[in-house]
Amino acid sequence: MSAKPRVIYWFRTDLRLHDSPALHAALDLKSEYLSASITKLNKKSKLFVIREAPQTVLPKLFKAWRISHLVFERDTDPYAKERDARVMELAKEAGVEVVATRHGRTLYDPDDLVKANGGKPTMSITQVQHAAEKLGEVPKPLPAPDSLPDPGDLSLDFEQTQPSPEPDINSIQRDGKETSYTSLSGPNHDFAVPQFSELGLKPATTPHRGGETRALAALDSIIANETYTTTFSKPSTAPTAFEPQATTLFSPHHHFGSLSVRLVYHRVQEVINKPANKKRASTIPTNLVGQLLFRDMYFAAQAALGYSFAQTYGNSHARFIPWHLPSKISPTNGLITGDHTIDSPLAE
């Protein structure tokens, strides 16, 4: 009889248990299972944070924990593609099977949307809608698992490789020393999530907090208000309004994966498709479904464009304006940049 698989589930942008295709793929292996979270499913289990870069720590874990499989949610961000390609090379060298074919951050797989859009970046909601028609219905959300296996042996008998502290892009946010890499399993050796004090970050000034439990409660609250859910229209909201809030405030939950976009999509659809709500329902692109499609549009565009998506210079789908060059001020027409696509609207 073959040995039971021993699996690392690598959380990245899917910090949840509900509607996690990759997590279901890991559990389907019938394995001893490392790095899953939520102690209510298994008191021995939690989110294990290993404080080292994945490219250096995962090969060590493969050996130390006798890993047979590595499972993670596929990511189409350009940095993630490079990181994951390197990790998969290292896994292959270690004889570890990688399961990374599932997407979970978006309604549709970004690569599939690009393919359905003729291989081009999605630059409008209309393009997304037409491409989505070829892909079919948004998949139904998967339930959270009822239980998790025991994590097994978690001993760490290797030295930590600390990442370079430079460049520190968060330095402006710090008011103390960054000490989160003092040991592999944290200062208390319990694999805990780093605290603000360890990161040297300033205390939070917002009342908003993360986590799957809070995200699901927030979704229940929005859905319970059928008038808001049905008539939501983006132009009528102010994203800076918090008390009372004008938008759902789901964006950070979607970004870090504590709330499934597919779950939101289907629960919103259930409300707006009720006979009593259909006539008053706002429509795409301004309604809540439209906001989710906008998110898919940007993810698919980024999947197609790569790193250039985040910049104008060298971006085939953006106009580069050399703002650093001298501009002229006209007493009649105001600012003149020399680019008619900018000067004409300004003059009007």
- Taking strands numbered 1, 2, ... along the chain, how are they ordered across the largest sheet? 2-1-3-4
- Overall 3D form: globular
The helix/strand series, from N terminus to C terminus, equals EHEHEHEHHHHHHHHHEEH
If helices are DSSP runs of H or I spanning 4 or more residues, what is the number of helices?
Answer: 13
Report on the biggest sheet: 4 strands, parallel
Average predicted local confidence, pLDDT: 87
Low-confidence stretches: none
Number of strands: 6
Secondary structural class? alpha/beta
Radius of gyration from the alpha-carbon trace, in angstroms: 23 Å
Q: Which percent range fits the helix content?
A: 25-40%
Question: How far is the first residue's CA from the last residue's CA?
Answer: 77 Å
The percentage of residues in β strands lies in: 5-15%
Can you give a write-up of this model?
The chain is α/β, with parallel strands linked by helices. Helices cover 35% and strands 6% of the residues. It is built from 13 helices and 6 strands. The strands form 2 sheets. A 4-stranded parallel β-sheet has the order 2-1-3-4, sandwiched between helices. It has a two-stranded antiparallel ribbon with strand order 5-6. Strand 1, helix 1 and strand 2 form a beta-alpha-beta unit. Helix 4 packs across helix 5.
